[in-house]
Amino acid sequence: MTFRHALVSGFEALREPRQAQLRALEEPIEDALGNHMRRVLTAGVAAGLFSLIFSVAQALYLQQIKHVDIAFGRLLNYYSGIAFGTFLFYVFAGTFLLFLLSVVIRLFVRQVPFWTLIKLLCIAMVPVLLFGWIGRGVALALLVWSAFLLVSGILTVRSASSAKRTPSKKRSR
Predict the structure, then answer these.
(1) At what angle do helices 29-64 and 114-124 cross, to 10 degrees?
(2) Is 114:98 a contact under the CB 8 Å cutoff?
(3) What 8-state DSSP symbol labels residue 110?
(4) Which terminus of the chain has a lower count of CB atoms within 10 Å, N or C?
(5) Are 152 and 170 in contact (CB under 8 A)?
(6) pLDDT tens per residue, range 118-153
(7) Which residue in 169, 153, 132, 163 sits closest to 23, CA to CA?
(8) Nearest-5° Cα angle at 131, 129 to 134
(9) Tally of helices (H runs) and strands (E runs) in the chain
(10) If you compute the radius of gyration of the chain from its CA atoms, what whole number of angstroms results?
(11) DSSP code of 65?
(12) What DSSP character marks residue 96?
């Protein structure tokens, strides 16, 4: 799997969440986590670069239009540190916080196996990973979207597992 495939599968999960959730039931955990980590790394790099480019563009605007004297060496040092911190936050949130969230959710949702819950959380984090770099203004909407994907995934898993347990009745004549 490549980084491009991980991003494409993320966008497919947003376009057809139910299909992605059903595929996640059959996908090995290693593949699901591998795709998730590729999305986390790609989103972290994109968010860090966006932060750096936006900050430098803002400084150029202030220097060229408003005639503010800016020391670009210090500015690049400061904002590259912020960009790297943003990247590390994405990695931290995509790994450790994902695990902590899965443990907390597992306390309330016992019917879903743990590894299936991890796969569903990987799918549910896709909106935050792909669009979280836009800014803080959309954070609440992205979190609601992720919560909706998680709840619909849990309901999908429950209905799929109940369909497997219920034997089909055949008519005997």
Answers:
(1) 30
(2) no
(3) -
(4) C
(5) no
(6) 999 999 999 999 898 887 789 899 999 999 999 999
(7) 153
(8) 125
(9) 8, 0
(10) 21
(11) T
(12) I
